[in-house]
TrEMBL record:
Its main location: membrane. One of its GO terms (molecular function) is oxidoreductase activity, acting on NAD(P)H, quinone or similar compound as acceptor. The gene is nuoH. It is found in: Cell membrane; Membrane. It comes from Nocardioides eburneiflavus. It catalyses: a quinone + NADH + 5 H(+)(in) = a quinol + NAD(+) + 4 H(+)(out). GO terms for biological process: aerobic respiration. Its EC number is 7.1.1.-. NDH-1 shuttles electrons from NADH, via FMN and iron-sulfur (Fe-S) centers, to quinones in the respiratory chain. The immediate electron acceptor for the enzyme in this species is believed to be ubiquinone. Couples the redox reaction to proton translocation (for every two electrons transferred, four hydrogen ions are translocated across the cytoplasmic membrane), and thus conserves the redox energy in a proton gradient. This subunit may bind ubiquinone. This is NADH-quinone oxidoreductase subunit H.
Length: 451
């Protein structure tokens, strides 16, 4: 079945089979130049993405957006970077200064390192030397990307903890719980890619999509990855670690000047990184879209694949911006329930289905019609169980204590929990007495009822 579909809908021409032995053979100056070019591209891409996000959101909200600094406001991001560099650098008294200074560096370095194993194109003539448009590759390159991405969490957690601020600490804890939860779903979404490609090398995974992109073959994995990458990057509507209505500014509340700029840089580079990973693993990487290679034979050779690769990356970046301008922020418990109760169980069921299909495809002893029907029923049941409502136990109202409350009884910077545990639901209405004898009741929704 898959073979018939792949022969009818080829999305890319036959790509050259990569050889891992070709990596690590470049002269030192080629490796150094590649690393410098990747760094420069990512910095320029960050400046462009900030401008692009502002312009797109402004257009969605019927505003003008940046339009003063440079043509179309293109230099606005550069002006913001200079402004941050010239701002006063403040370190709180209660901060752990060493960790406070190292946290932004720990957050931003993994964002750059991940791009070392992302293929940007085929083998090209690089200043007279034949080399792949990729810094390096390895048999477990995708696991390397996941491992490096998980290190960035330490920068955020340590930044929130070392600030000596309650809101920063809570923002760091939120971010760590969020990123760890959604990394589980993201990793499970990639397992199906490993099973289908038969490799964890990024260049080999791109070559395995020479007939049909994995985003179509493994559509559930693609959807789960796209949801997980939004949660992984702390972007709206999943930007709960930086919820200004609850946590002031989140884990970087106490940061300023260049240290804040590093956190900002890490966020936007991670935005491009998860987009590049999605492009590599699900959209054929640097391969030209369907039909182009049949009209133009050189579409997948030379430096032209850079155009296809970054074109696909910008599609994902536009998706991030579109979500930010369209959807409201989720509640934290809803967001965590989505990750643990929906994405992870569906991912596990889908992995079982993909593994079963691959085994049957290799052995061919069972009728695929009955197999696909059984897997479809399994997926429907799994998704249906996600929507079965849980009966909420009725909680007895807790009477507020009239005794004086010590805000620092639990130790600084974490305040103690309210009496009776965390408060759920809307806040209790407040009643104010007037000098005229009347009363005004204000609910959590700011509705006024005059008695």
């Amino acid at each position: 079945m898959n073979g018939a579909v792949m022969s009818v809908l080829p999305l890319a021409a036959d790509l050259p089979a990569p050889e891992l032995d070709a990596f690590g053979q470049d002269p030192w100056w080629v490796i150094l130049l590649k690393a410098v070019l990747i760094f420069v591209i990512l910095v320029l891409l960050t400046l462009f993405n900030i401008w692009f996000e502002r312009r797109v959101v402004a257009r969605m909200q019927h505003r003008v957006g940046p339009n003063v600094h440079g043509p179309f406001g293109l230099l606005q991001s550069l002006a913001d970077g200079v402004k941050l560099a010239l701002k006063e650098d403040i370190v709180p008294k209660a901060a752990d200064k060493v960790v406070f200074l190292l946290a932004p560096v720990i957050a931003v370095v993994p964002a750059f390192v991940t791009w070392a194993v992302i293929p940007l194109g085929p083998t090209v003539n690089f200043f007279g030397h034949q080399t792949p448009l990729q810094l390096t590759d390895m048999p477990v390159a995708v696991l390397f990307m996941l491992a490096i991405a998980s290190i960035g969490i330490y920068g955020i957690v340590l930044g929130g903890w070392s600030s000596g601020s309650t809101y920063s600490l809570l923002g760091g804890l939120r971010s760590s719980a969020q990123m760890i939860s959604y990394e589980v779903a993201m990793g499970l979404a990639l397992v199906a890619v490993f099973l289908y490609a038969g490799s964890m090398s990024t260049s080999e995974i791109v070559a395995a999509q020479d007939r049909l992109w994995f985003g179509l073959i493994l559509l559930p994995s693609f959807v789960i990855y796209m949801i997980s990458m939004v949660g992984e990057t702390n972007r709206a509507p999943f930007d709960l670690p930086e919820a200004e209505g609850e946590l002031v500014g989140g884990f970087h509340t106490e940061y300023s000047s260049l240290k804040f700029a590093l956190f900002f840089l890490a966020e936007y580079i991670n935005l491009a990184t998860v987009s590049a990973i999605a492009t590599t693993l699900f959209l054929g990487g640097w391969a030209a879209p369907w039909g182009i290679e049949h009209v133009w034979e050189g579409a997948n050779s030379g430096y032209w694949p850079l155009l296809w690769f970054f074109g696909k990356v910008f599609i994902f970046i536009f998706l991030f911006v579109w979500l930010r301008g369209s959807l409201p922020r989720m509640r934290y418990d809803q967001f965590m329930a989505l990750g643990w109760k929906v994405l992870i169980p569906v991912s596990l069921a889908w992995i079982v289905a993909v593994a079963t299909i691959r085994v049957i495809s290799l052995e061919g002893n069972i009728d695929r019609t009955y197999l696909v029907a059984a897997i479809a029923v399994l997926l429907v049941l799994t998704i249906g169980l996600m929507f079965v409502g849980e009966k909420k136990a009725e909680e007895a109202p807790v009477e507020a204590s009239e005794e004086p409350h010590d805000a620092f009884a639990g130790g600084f910077p974490v305040p103690p929990m309210p009496a009776g545990g965390a408060v759920r639901g809307a806040a209790a209405p407040l009643t104010f007495a007037h000098s005229s004898g009347g009363r005004t009741t204000v609910t959590a929704a700011a509705e006024e009822n005059h008695e």
